[in-house]
């Protein structure tokens, strides 16, 4: 069982002047950088101004995808890389968190891309996918069975191809756990307020850790992986939908956690990343574009449960942001700061290793992509042997916690209401809240509701639930302070 070092002990160890690498930003890229570096034997610190994965990494499309939309952009290399990474994540690294999801690709009369173009794209995508990667054409009943409510009027052709979906915030957390298990010191809710670098002679990072005060950590190298700081209900869907739009964009419909996610937008944003939010124009745009493949009754505003907005750092391009390449960029400043921008959740392992290779060679000898399973992934014998769990709760616990689900069940056994549903309409239980505070670095209600459970994403966060989680946060903090 992974028992995180207490926050106080972590802070005490962070100020010791013996770190090899400080990673700023606890999203999927920063977490993987910290893990890869720690497993090589480097003394690593991972810090984030908010919670782990609280930025773009928990506001993704929830897809680990092979890059179909990048074919029209000519990014063949990125498509090949994405296909490989999707397969490795799904089969070896995080099989419970990255699961297969077929997609339908409809071509309607008047669409920017007709049946011939769609068919050619699918065949090329299949050719790039290596082993696996099914492509087929559907007619009639199989279309309705896969996606009830898909518009059939004007449908000229419908292809299908294989993708994968994930619980992005849990994938980040599993990677943070792997970093901590390998020896990295991890600290969330610790905002970097100062950075002093001396070329090839290390640097000092000043951190505001909230009520825990300010601290300064010193490291030989610093990597900036701070990302941009550098939901609708429909049951029964067995596949996602990707409908090509003009200008290289794609309208998506994705079944996720019993709901239907629609998106995405490509709106330029130049303000403070902390202030990004969903606008009325964004909602209207998403619903309008989804009307191209969904029946009107599915797109009522009163069916929207949850909205999320995230930012992706992209290279500056002329014209629409949809045309910007989705490959990652790594730059090294004259003072030795390695900065990472862009890229995709799907290829985060590649991004992490590319960033580490920009450090002096002696620091990363033997670096190669690690394909071992992450902590909290895989399957749980404890869950499978329990006959007292309701089926949706059992599946939910195994999906979120993998081989650590037994730890949640053990904690539930010590609580009077451990297996009580937090909300009657969802599968999350109260033991998950206690586990989040004790074993997963949660500090706030938002940490629990948005990134440790699925409460916020399901639209189930009532005032009563917020108050009770808040009380548990204060109680767990007191227990930690006393012990």
How large is the share of residues in beta strands? 15-25%
Structural class label: alpha/beta
User: What is the CATH C level class of the largest domain, in words?
Assistant: Alpha Beta
CATH architecture of the largest domain: 2-Layer Sandwich
CATH third-level topology of the largest domain: D-Amino Acid Oxidase, Chain A, domain 2
Instruction: Give the assembly state of these chains.
Output: single chain
The gyration radius over C-alpha positions equals 22 Å
Strand element count: 14
Helical content band: 25-40%
CATH-assigned homologous superfamily of the largest domain: D-Amino Acid Oxidase, subunit A, domain 2
Distance between the termini: 19 Å
- Assign an overall shape: globular
Number of separate structural domains: 3
User: H/E series, N to C?
Assistant: HEHEHEHEHEHEEEEEEEHEEHHHHHHH
Stretches with pLDDT under 50, minimum 5 residues = 229-235
Helices and strands in order:
Layout: H1 7-14, E1 19-24, H2 28-39, E2 44-47, H3 76-93, E3 98-108, H4 115-128, E4 135-137, H5 141-146, E5 155-166, H6 168-181, E6 185-187, E7 191-197, E8 203-208, E9 214-224, E10 240-244, E11 250-256, E12 259-263, H7 280-290, E13 328-332, E14 338-342, H8 348-356, H9 381-385, H10 391-401, H11 405-413, H12 430-439, H13 445-452, H14 463-482
Parallel strand pairs: 1-2, 1-9, 2-6, 3-10, 9-14
Antiparallel strand pairs: 3-5, 4-5, 7-8, 8-9, 10-11, 11-12, 13-14
Helix pairs in contact: 2-6, 2-8, 11-12, 12-14
